[in-house]
Amino acid sequence: MTGHPMAPERHEAGPGSSPRRREAGGPTPDLDPASTLASFARELTAAGGIVHGPASSDEAVAAALRILGEASSKRVMAWAEDQIAVRGLGEALRREGYMIGEAELPREPEPRRVLLRALGEAAVGLTGADGGVADTGSLALSSGPGRPRLAWLLPPVHVAFLSVTALYPDMASFFSRHPQKPLGSANLVFVTGPSCTGDIELILTRGVHGPKQLHVVLLR
Q: Are 115 and 161 in contact (CB under 8 A)?
């Protein structure tokens, strides 16, 4: 379970890595759904992410269009529609004139270069998520067919749609519910906020290894 080399700072969260849990010296207590939701939103906001909702499908589509409206391009990179599972999202994007780019890279060098140049014009990446970890505000993202990693790594803005039923108190709870997830995915990472690094003169900089903005649209 490793992050993509393009975004090490953004994807380094691992089991038991939460400072809050280490200081407490024990596991995070079970939380009720409302407390889990509040904790996730609080921690994600503290990490620099932006939380929307909980929202209905129509409200989630409206939120996505607002975010896209602030972007500089009509080109979008996205997971397959059935992997995001927000009713009406694809139809709304096409109606508003957004071009949804194919993010599955071919193996042949020249077609790969051509596609990467085109994908570089995408201002926003749209994905679903496998879960949310409340005690760190992290998103669990796995790649595979219809779920390209580039959609959450390459565009400067990442919008992830996450059901509130997929929120877990901590990482141990996530893996307890999904014990086979690391084995059944091409890549599994935990994203905590937008891309950040302090490697350059110890100055915190966003967007060096990945998106500058992370929006999470919670679905009720």
A: no
Residue 132 lies inside a defined structural domain of this protein:
yes
Q: What is the CATH number of the domain that holds 120?
A: 3.40.50
Residue 202 domain-assigned (yes or no): yes
CA 154 – CA 193 distance, rounded (Å): 15
On whether residue 139 sits in a domain, the answer given is: yes
**Contact criterion met (CB below 8 Å) for 44 and 193:** yes
**Chain position carrying tokens 């391009």:** 73
pTM for this model (two decimals) = 0.80
Mind listing the pLDDT tens digit of every residue in the chain (220 residues)? Answer: 333 333 333 433 443 334 344 343 344 556 789 999 999 999 999 999 999 999 999 999 999 999 999 987 899 999 999 999 899 999 999 999 999 876 677 788 888 888 888 788 899 999 999 999 999 999 999 999 899 999 999 999 999 999 999 999 999 999 999 998 877 777 899 999 886 665 566 555 554 555 899 999 999 9
Q: What are the tokens at 134?
A: 């409340």
- How crowded is residue 48: how many other Cβ atoms within 10 Å of its Cβ? 17
What's the length of the chain?
220
Q: 3-state class of 133 per DSSP? A: strand
Residue 125 is part of which domain span? 54-219
Q: How many domains does the chain fold into?
A: 1
- Write out the DSSP string of 113-168: HHHHHHHTT--EEEE--SEEETTTTEEEEEEBTTB-THHHHSSSEEEEEEEGGGEE
Is 114 inside a domain boundary? yes
